[in-house]
Amino acid sequence: MADVSLRNVSKAFGDTEAIKDLTLSISDGEFVVLLGPTGAGKTTLLRLVAGLERPDSGSIVIDGRDVTKLEPAWRDVAFVFQQYSLYPHLTVAENLAFPLRSPARKLTEDEIRMRVAEVAKLVRIDHKLGNKSTRLSGGEMQRVAIGRALVRKPAIYLMDEPLSSLDAKLRGDLRLELKRIQAELGATMLYVTHDQIEAMTMADRIGILAEGRLVQMGTPREIYTEPANLHVAARLGQPAINLLPADLIADAAAPTGTKTIGARTEHLTIRRAENGHAHGTVDWVEHLGDQNHLHLTVGNRKLVTLTDPDSLFKKGDRVTIQLRAPLYFDGAGNRIAG
Amino acid sequence: MSATAHSVVEPSTASKRVAATLVVVYALISMIPLLWIFATSFKTPPDSIAYPPKVLFTPSIEGYCNLFTTRTRQTPEYISSLPPATSFCDETTRKRNMVIAGPSNFLPRFVNSLVIAFGSTFCAVFLGTLAAYGFSRFRVPLADDLLFFILSTRFMPPIAVAIPIYLMYREFGLSDTALGMILLYTAVNVSLAVWLLKGFIDEIPKEYEEAAMIDGYTRLQAFRKVVLPQATTGIAATAIFCLIFAWNEYAFASLLTSGTAQTAPPFIPTIIGEGGQDWPAVAAGTTVFLVPILVFTILLRKQLLRGITFGAVRK
């Protein structure tokens, strides 16, 4: 395990700039999640660290060693791909042993067998070691793929949306398992995803990536409560943050220069309108079971917020809305610190 | 894969029967010439040219005797002075007032065919696999133009360039050599091999090699350990196509080989018996000639089917 840093790295494919002047450092044992939509450059960034792509400019340093021009095999990284993760012509055990059988490593068959057994137990696949890798369920395949990375002790583990092709339940289970494994091994990990829940639950630090730039980097708490701008604010929160023009709902606390107010559920107090004064009406109530999604119309804007399942709002109710310390953004979309 | 590309509607028993009948009838019609050759190889020379043609006859292996031997005519007195015949072939030959003078050229010609066909198939598939991998995985400058150029070598029948090749071969001393024929068939087959194999290799996601390279393998090691095992079906199908071409090729073989490197196709029709063509021997030569390709095709028939339907069925 080791520190990894990228310094002013840029990469373009033809006319498209995938990564623009990106600087990032990951310390030993840290779990960093990069969050961004499709096309933000997440995969390209991982491929640059792995050496599958060469940067146009900038440098990549792993464990104090400049690896910018090094072949993937000599970088001491492990990679979990989003899909096509297992060699279809090999069994589970052979897949797990594959990285250890590399001519670059000189391990005896006994050592290999021991490592494979250890890792198989860690990712809970030890009961299927003899199976052909094509005869596994999606979750098992992905566990083997993760196991194939864990079988080595590289400087850093790179994970490219390893859970995205799985169904929701499995994703939840593996998310926990992955975090447990990372903590157990003290592994340095760079994990990219577009799933905010994965980012929030697993990361020591989250980096928000947009159009090839690192927009903000911080702990999940920081990113959530102090987003640098509208883009970052919109990435996190379920349901998504409501972005309202500053004059829609009067807020005396708004600092000068506020153009947009960002209001998540916890920033809104909603009451049934009394004595004829109301901000908006209830459009729709979605019952999710443990909570409700409340859809409101305020002026010409739609708002979505959470309420308790036992709240008595119903369609057509007129309501008043009060803001509680929401997020303020200026005309350029940057947050004004309150 | 559990999901198949079959039609959703199960065909009815009646339509299945009609289809099966048509296939059987077509197969029988296609097989008549082959069966006739096979039958002729077991006829005696007079039976083979009898009119009306004989469908029922007493089988004889005289054709095979004549295929593998050369014979000389002798006087009956000389023949009766010989010690008793030791084999069936000896006996039949003597009945026709001839004695076996030695082995014929069929066996060496057959061996030439084996060496040249398998040699050129190996070369074409070897070069084709490497080229296809390169085109599939690397940003080759002018890749599309190069691929088109490779394909364009198949636009004309190869025999159209027979004369330039004949002159070139005479100049380089490649005429009537096994090496010359292997080079020629490789050149013709390599375009087919590149195109077929590129399709197969394109189907193998590049993530497999990338994973292997990150795991400490060089590109060549990743190619050997990860790509080749997954491309075996494609390689086998390509090999069959190349082998069939090289094995059956007649025009170049008859033009460029006449002696030591002659292959079986131009040799077989030249088997002449006394007083005209020795049809049973020719038929016997053809039958023996069919055996290797038949065995090879049966061994690899699954891959061949996959090769033919390649691209038609989506996994």
UniProtKB/TrEMBL annotation, chain A:
CDD domains: ABC_MalK_N. Residues 4-236 form the ABC transporter domain. It is a peripheral membrane protein. GO terms for molecular function: ABC-type transporter activity; ATP binding; ATP hydrolysis activity. One of its GO terms (biological process) is carbohydrate transport. Its main location: membrane. It comes from the Bacteria. It is found in: Cell inner membrane. One of its GO terms (cellular component) is ATP-binding cassette (ABC) transporter complex, substrate-binding subunit-containing. Belongs to the ABC transporter superfamily. This is Multiple sugar transport system ATP-binding protein. It comes from Neomesorhizobium albiziae.
Automatic annotation (TrEMBL), chain B:
Belongs to the binding-protein-dependent transport system permease family. GO terms for biological process: transmembrane transport. It is found in: Cell membrane. GO terms for cellular component: plasma membrane. Residues 110-300 form the ABC transmembrane type-1 domain. InterPro entries: BP-dep_ABC_trans_perm, MetI-like, MetI-like_sf. Pfam families: BPD_transp_1 (PF00528). The chain crosses the membrane at residues 18-39, 114-134, 146-166, 178-197, 226-247, 279-300. It is a multi-pass membrane protein. It comes from the Bacteria. Its main location: membrane. This is Carbohydrate ABC transporter membrane protein 2, CUT1 family. Keywords: Cell membrane, Membrane, Transmembrane, Transmembrane helix, Transport. It comes from Neomesorhizobium albiziae.
